[in-house]
Amino acid sequence: MAAEPLSQKEIEDRLRELPGWAFEDDRIIRTYRLGSHVAASALVAHIAAVQDELNHHSDLTLGYNTVRLSMNTHSAGDAVTEADFTLAERVEALAPAHGAS
Q1: pTM of this structure
Q2: For 2, 10, 16, 72, which has the most beta carbons within 10 A of its beta carbon?
Q3: What is the largest distance, in Å, between two alpha-carbon atoms of the chain?
Q4: C-alpha–C-alpha distance, residues 98 and 101, integer Å
Q5: Residue 27: CB partners within 8 Å, gap ≥ 6?
Q6: Inter-axis angle of helices 37-54 and 82-94, to 10 degrees?
């Protein structure tokens, strides 16, 4: 069964529960700042493991001391679905352990 796209209101309601996240260009996005490139790289590796566990993958960009996530669900016509928020919540739970803000 394909994931169902969330309505604009559902997306807005869910984003209120995830400070730092935004809706832009039909995706939910967030950029984390970290103390070093090594810390940012470690966060990317941790996020990649969670993505594999969930079988749901975001666009993930590593900068010098930043990590940017941008996600929607391809199988739902590139719309935002519950799967995107599940991944975002998991990333939010692990980011502080890496010193992300």
Answers
A1: 0.96
A2: 72
A3: 41
A4: 9
A5: 70, 71, 72, 80
A6: 140
